[in-house]
């Protein structure tokens, strides 16, 4: 007999399902992701810190968990909601089931949930606070507690590296500011020969300038960009001195540093098939996304920024560049694993930007 578990929402909705992973009871913001593959990368993406992820694809865990595909070695999501968690995965790289993996990280999951109904609810209402409850008798109290629950706002500090370290390459020298980075950003830079120094989220502009890198990469990360003041100040200090490229949270921080504004979206973009238009070429890129905040397009008008990419589904801002200084960013994920790889060219653009400005910008 499998142990039961309840998923309850702040609006009083109750879903009954079964436990997998940890027995722990948790609360968090519930979001949904529509990707059909890549659950290992998703569950280990630090941008989900504090969140409960609903997977809309109905079978999760079928190719197991392997050694190589983690975006970070210690996942920090709060919980997983799935229709069916596969118990007997099959793949030549498989090393553990979803259940075994989540248990080892003490992260709870619930399966047997009508994830279509749940997702419709999130789409209509917007993201909601939610809780996993094991005992039926505690449901009413859990819903009551959710109504006034306040979640932490220091997620970036929780997941960022505490000390700097190097992932060695033999070409351009890049400082990667770790706001909760996905490992694949390091892999993409190393693949192009870059020597990558990963530094904590609160590294100052002076500390970076002292290293005289060829470029700075601003990573993705969890939470509200407006809470990451250290990052915003650092970006103001390196703008015009070192070329940089921002991804997701890094993109939002770049916008804030240049005087634009961000807002919380109703239910965000989380999936692997979001069409984005590159306004310079007119080409449509299919992209992987995971964000709950976005840059306000009206606020960009009064800045030195230009919108380079927009979302076809809802017209939101997907890319920015500075009109005169070597800096650009995207809201989506060019490093996406398992893909899609359409936006991968952005790393090559970053290499070109660093090469063109090598040695010159620092003295500007
Ligand atoms: N993947 C990310 O970097 C997400 C950025 C930010 N936490 C958001 O939700 O919008």
Question: How would you characterize the overall build of this protein?
Answer:
There is one protein chain. This protein has 364 residues and is α/β, with parallel strands linked by helices. The protein has two domains: 4-148, Carbamoyl-phosphate synthase small subunit, N-terminal domain (Glucose Oxidase, domain 1); 155-363, Class I glutamine amidotransferase (GATase) domain (Rossmann fold, 3-Layer(aba) Sandwich). Helices cover 24% and strands 31% of the residues. The protein contains eleven helices and 19 strands. The strands form three sheets. It has a ten-stranded mixed beta sheet with strand order 10-12-11-13-14-19-18-17-15-16, sandwiched between helices. Strand 15 and strand 16 (284-295) form a beta hairpin. Helix 7 packs across helix 8 (229-238) and helix 8 (229-238) packs across helix 9 (249-257). The protein starts with a strand and ends in an 8-residue tail after the last helix. The site of glutamine has 11 residues, from strand 16.
Short description:
With 364 residues, the chain is α/β, with parallel strands linked by helices. The protein folds into two domains: 4-148, Glucose Oxidase, domain 1 (3-Layer(bba) Sandwich); 155-363, Class I glutamine amidotransferase (GATase) domain (Rossmann fold), CATH 3.40.50. The protein has eleven helices and 19 strands.
């Amino acid at each position: 007999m499998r142990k039961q578990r309840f998923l309850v929402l702040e609006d009083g909705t109750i879903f009954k399902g079964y436990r997998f992973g940890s027995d722990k009871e948790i609360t968090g913001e519930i979001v949904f992701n529509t990707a059909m593959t890549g659950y290992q990368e998703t569950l280990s993406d630090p941008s989900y810190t504090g969140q409960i992820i609903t997977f809309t694809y109905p079978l999760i865990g079928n190719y197991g968990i392997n050694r190589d595909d983690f975006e970070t070695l210690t996942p920090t999501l709060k919980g997983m909601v799935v229709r069916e968690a596969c118990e007997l995965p099959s793949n030549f790289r498989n090393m553990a089931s979803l259940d075994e993996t989540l248990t080892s990280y003490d992260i709870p999951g619930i399966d047997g949930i009508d994830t279509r109904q749940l997702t419709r609810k999130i789409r209509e209402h917007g993201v909601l606070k939610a809780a996993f409850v094991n005992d039926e008798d505690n449901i009413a109290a859990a819903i009551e507690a959710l109504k006034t629950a306040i979640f932490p706002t220091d997620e970036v500090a929780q997941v960022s590296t505490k000390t700097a370290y190097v992932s060695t390459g033999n070409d351009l020298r890049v400082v990667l500011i770790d706001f909760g980075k996905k490992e694949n950003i390091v892999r993409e830079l190393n693949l192009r020969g870059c020597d990558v120094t990963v530094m904590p989220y609160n590294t100052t502009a002076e500390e970076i300038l002292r290293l005289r890198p060829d470029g700075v990469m601003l990573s993705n990360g969890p939470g509200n960009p407006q809470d990451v003041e250290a990052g915003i100040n650092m970006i103001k200090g390196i703008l015009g001195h070192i070329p940089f490229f921002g991804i997701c949270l890094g993109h939002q921080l770049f916008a804030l540093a240049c005087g634009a504004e961000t807002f919380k979206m109703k239910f965000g973009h989380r999936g692997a098939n979001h069409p984005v238009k590159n306004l310079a070429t007119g080409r449509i890129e299919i992209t992987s996304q995971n964000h709950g905040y976005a840059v306000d397009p009206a606020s960009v008008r009064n800045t030195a920024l230009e919108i380079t990419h927009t979302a076809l589904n809802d017209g939101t801002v997907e890319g920015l560049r500075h009109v005169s200084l070597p800096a650009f960013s995207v809201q989506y994920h060019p490093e996406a694993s398992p893909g899609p790889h359409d936006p991968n060219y952005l790393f090559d653009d970053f290499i070109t930007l660093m090469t063109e400005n090598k040695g010159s910008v620092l003295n500007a």
